[in-house]
Write a structure and sequence with these properties.
- The chain is an alpha+beta fold.
- Helix content is about 25%, strand content about 25%.
- Strands 8, 9, 10, 11, 12, 13, 14, 15 and 16 form a nine-stranded mixed β-sheet that branches. Strands 1, 2, 3, 4, 5, 6, 7 and 17 form an eight-stranded antiparallel β-sheet that branches.
- α2 packs across α3.
- The longest helix has 15 residues.
- The two termini are about 40 Å apart.
- Bound molecules: 4'-deoxy-4'-aminopyridoxal-5'-phosphate (PMP).
- 4'-deoxy-4'-aminopyridoxal-5'-phosphate (PMP) binds next to α6 and β14.
Length: about 325
Amino acid sequence: MSFDDVSSVWMGGEVVPWTKAKVHVSSHALHYGSGVFEGIRCYATPQGPAVFRSEDHVNRLFASARVYGIEVPYTRGELGAAICQTIAANDFASCYVRPIVFFGSSTLALNPRSCPVEVAVLAWPWNDMLGEHAGECGVRVTVSPWRKFHGAMIPTTAKACGQYLNSILAVRDAAGRGYDEALLLNADGGIAEGAGENLFVVRRGVLYTNDDRQSILMGITRDSVITIAKDIGFSVVTRDLAVEDLMNADEAFFSGTAAEITPVCEVDGAAIGSGRPGDVTRAIQRAFFEATRGSVRCYRKWLHFVDECTFAGAATAVPCI
Ligand code: PMP
């Protein structure tokens, strides 16, 4: 991952050169992580670049902001347009997009009441977050010694900057011990999620995944996987997951905007199923990427084309049969 190809950033209502996109060192968010953000992908399609589930991501951004009492000084439509402007200004055919809303400079008292709310949108090319061949070959994960925080400590369903220190501890530990990714247990000892991904396990052709009662971020990719899996004929069960469910699974995979659909092949040295990406995982991956490319009509509603970027008049629903 590198920012080498990024020329422009959307900041406070305008597109500015990368070198001008700066914040002050007294910014509240720098000291306390008092901001919220999103991770979104834009995919290349035959009709040009399209932002995947833009409206859902912007809605989650507003929901996260609300949890922390951050008043976003733009409408959802303006932010949707800012996302497209950022992609267009950089001339990316596909990329990862990172809107961030945070408290700027006014006070370093814990209460950010007087701080201005600043908004920026970054975009950059980011493929293979979990390694060059992760999507194809799968990843090796470790159960982290760091637990995922409980929702009564910090709400897990909001995507706030500071909470990612928990994931950073977990990924640095995992990488230090030679693993590709960390799997975090929740305060009760059940599986929560990856450091930046939700988890699915597959047993006898049925998909299992957990939900916010197990301290997860309710991923938008997770939701896409559930929809796609049901549409292509799989049963999906939402329930708590124990480490034994993973160890006894035929297949497992992560879902996330950055990680997309990444097979999990090994946990702490033990193979999951055959130790290679399984057929169900492959089928979900295939269908997911077809949806992102715009080649499945019923999922076109998930795409916002950068050229005609507006939240109004989204595609009419087409049944997936
Ligand atoms: N859990 C965590 C902790 C994450 O950071 C992410 C990435 N946003 C996810 C799950 C997956 O969410 P999504 O599919 O919406 O990207």
